[in-house]
Design a protein that fits this description.
There is one protein chain. This protein starts with a helix and ends in a 16-residue tail after the last helix. It is mostly helical. Helix 10 crosses helix 13. The chain contains 15 helices and no strands.
């Protein structure tokens, strides 16, 4: 009922959801085609290093330019930035589709893929920064739960649809052509998302007119966003916890990719491995959906800070199960709970940052947020590459992730480091 009230009080919130969810459904289409072409082609058998390199290459560049991009979100119409970015991304995917149709790999393809992922982060940062302007403060946790988790679920659905379309087209045995067709479809869908953005007014997502400075400060302005976070240490610590959680999730995703590709399924049948990975991600997506549903309830009863702490340690028993068994059913069960608790951390912390930070700094703050998360994802990928064998079977990696989650909970998130633990101060 709480989520329904958001729709009743803000006619713009459903429009934002349409833009976000359509874009993330399309992300699933695009990513499934990209994974099929790069990691699940018969001639391209991945190792832990190659899979980690793929993750790092698409995320690290945005981590370097993200803070500077955040300035634009606080200076120009976020709606216009989201609209134009979707349009540019649609054009970029047409080029990627043509390259994949020609079976092109290497630096040229990597460059255009990097651009696509960087634009994607800019769009999501703009939508997150503008959300507090169209829903009430007390509804932010529920709004984030719906927006972020719905988006994640649509990524999973898009990936599943993409695999289904690929299998249908690929009956003739031309996998690269099937992947190219998928990416053409994704390009058209991004174009539709750009058109839907017209339904929002120019400054509806901010920044508000009185918040825009006429002075160009460059790097100094970037650092102001970081200083604001240092003044709001609760938000800074929440961002760090979320980043670490996402880094561990990335390492586990790489582990699952290798297990499905090289252990749970015959290595000479990459389509079976892709289907197995899709199933694992889908089950994790169900956990993500449940995590978003219980987050407003848990944060409302115990306070956001306690709920984040609980969600950080919640997946540890299941990670230990993953470490002790290479059974596929147990691994997928663990993926469900890691997704559930991971989404609880993300949704709760998003609302924490949105309520702590003034709108005039929120774009830069979310850009820094993305940089921290992306950096941790790259770190998780590198760690997985160093620890995992090509089979994906590993005792140390899940135990290492458990230890890091516990360490963050006992240090960064310890009670004395947070202000206002009571539910009444959430």
């Amino acid at each position: 009922m709480r989520k329904m009230r958001i729709f009743e009080k803000s006619s713009s919130f459903p429009k934002l959801l349409q833009i976000r969810w359509l874009g993330q459904f399309t992300d699933g289409l695009f990513q499934s085609a990209l994974a099929s072409f790069v990691l699940f082609s018969p001639e391209r058998q991945p190792s832990a290093v190659s899979a980690a390199l793929a993750f790092s290459v698409v995320l690290l560049p945005y981590s370097l330019i993200g803070p500077y991009v955040g300035i634009f979100l606080d200076r120009f119409s976020r709606r216009r930035i989201v609209q134009v970015s979707n349009l540019i991304r649609a054009g970029d995917l047409i080029i990627i589709a043509l390259l994949i149709k020609a079976s092109t790999t290497g630096a040229v393809l990597t460059l255009f893929v990097l651009f696509a992922f960087g634009i994607n982060r800019l769009i999501l940062s703009g939508l997150s920064a503008g959300l507090p302007l169209i829903v009430k403060r007390e509804e932010l946790i529920a709004a984030n739960a719906l927006a972020v988790t719905g988006g994640t679920i649509f990524v999973v659905i898009g990936g599943g649809v993409g695999i289904g379309i690929k299998n249908f087209i690929d009956k003739g045995g031309n996998g690269d052509l099937a992947d190219a067709v998928l990416i053409f479809l994704a390009s058209a869908s991004y174009l539709v998302a750009s058109l839907i953005t017209n339904r929002l007014s120019k400054n509806e997502l901010g920044p508000l007119a009185h918040e825009v400075s006429s002075e160009i400060k460059g790097w100094k302005e970037m650092l102001e966003g970081l200083h604001i976070l240092r003044e709001h240490k609760d938000a800074m610590r929440g961002i760090l916890a979320t980043a670490v959680q996402r880094g561990g999730l990335t390492a586990l995703t790489l582990m699952g990719l290798l297990l499905e590709r090289n252990t749970y399924n015959p290595s000479d049948n990459p389509d079976a491995g892709l289907r197995g990975l899709a199933l694992a991600i889908s089950i994790a997506g169900v956990g993500i959906g449940i995590g978003s549903f219980i987050s407003p309830i848990g944060a409302g009863k115990y306070g956001r800070h306690r709920w984040i702490k609980f969600s950080m340690v919640g997946p540890i028993p299941f990670l230990i199960i993953t470490a002790l068994s290479s059974n596929e059913a147990l691994f997928i069960t663990s993926a469900f709970f890691v997704g559930l608790f991971g989404q609880s951390v993300k949704v709760t912390n998003d609302s924490l940052v949105q309520t702590k930070i003034m709108d005039e700094y929120r774009g830069r703050t979310f850009a820094f947020y993305d940089v921290a998360v992306n950096g941790a994802i790259v770190g998780g990928a590198i760690t997985a590459a160093l620890v995992l064998p090509s089979s994906g079977v590993s005792l140390p990696l899940p135990l290492l992730i458990s230890a890091v989650y516990l360490l963050i909970t006992l240090t960064v998130l310890k009670r004395t480091n947070f202000s206002g633990h009571l539910a009444t101060t959430k």
